[in-house]
Amino acid sequence: MGRWAVVFMQAKIIALPKFEDPRGNLSFVEEEHHIPFKIKRTYWIYDVPGGQVRGGHAFREQREFIVALSGSFDVIVDSGTHKQSFSLNRSYYGLYIPCGLWRQMENFSTNALAVVLSSTRFQESDYIREYNEFLAYREKYANQHL
Ligand code: TYD
After folding, report:
1. Planar angle of CA 89, 65, 84, nearest 5 degrees
2. 126 CA to middle of ligand 1, Å?
3. CA-proximal residue: ligand 1, atom 3 (nearest)
4. pTM reported for the whole predicted model
5. Whether 57 is catalytic
6. Alpha-carbon 98 to chain mean position
7. Distance in angstroms (rounded) separating the CA atoms of residues 78 and 49
8. pLDDT tens per residue across all 146 residues of the chain
9. Which residue's C-alpha comes closest to atom 5 of ligand 1?
10. 46 lines ligand 1 (CB under 6 A)
11. How many helices (H) and strands (E) does the chain have?
12. 128: left (phi > 0), else alpha (psi -120 to 50), else beta?
């Protein structure tokens, strides 16, 4: 009889290649190289009115990489016990968020453009939209015994 606990991973900033050039800079991202997943979907958030908040949920499966292609915003990542705030304001780095973390995007600048590379196609059932349900989910999987 074994005992096990799911190890939830932490969010982290990943720096992307940057080719500085007097003609204009160039950056890029390759799946399963710079980011640890295959890209199944890309979406973007834009025209965010001042003071608005996006996100505010967790994913059971989806892993994602968020880049501020233009402007700036903050991503608050919450494990249920610890909160971390990441300021994204450069197009040559982004935030990798593993599954099982509550995350919220806020403090968008004018003309901010957030691009999200996702490891899954859109599936509403992958969302955990209630914070209490998220806490229960973390609790359940962090203390699972066989
Ligand atoms: P949602 O992820 O809930 O955005 P936020 O958490 O920032 O408010 O998405 C908003 C709506 O868009 C929701 O009704 C689902 C839909 N949607 C898709 O249909 N496909 C997608 O890839 C995404 C990200 C959202």
Report:
1. 65
2. 12
3. 55
4. 0.94
5. yes
6. 7
7. 24
8. 556 666 778 999 999 999 999 999 999 999 999 999 999 999 999 999 999 999 999 999 999 999 999 999 999 999 999 999 999 999 999 999 999 999 999 999 999 999 999 999 999 999 999 999 999 999 988 766 54
9. 55
10. no
11. 1, 12
12. beta
Q: Is the CB of 41 under 6 A from ligand 1?
A: yes
**Amino acid sitting at position 131:** Y
Instruction: Please indicate whether residue 43, judged by its CB atom, sits closer than 6 Å to ligand 1.
Output: yes
Asked if residue 64 lies in contact with residue 55, where contact means CB atoms within 8 angstroms, the answer is: no
The DSSP annotation for 7-68 comes to -PPPPEEEEPPEE--TT--EE---BTTTBSS---EEEEE--PPTT--EEEEEESS--EEEEE
The dihedral built from the CA positions of residue 56, 62, 68 and 70, taken in this order, carries a sign that is negative
For residue 84, give the nearest of 98, 100, 66, 103 by alpha carbon. 103
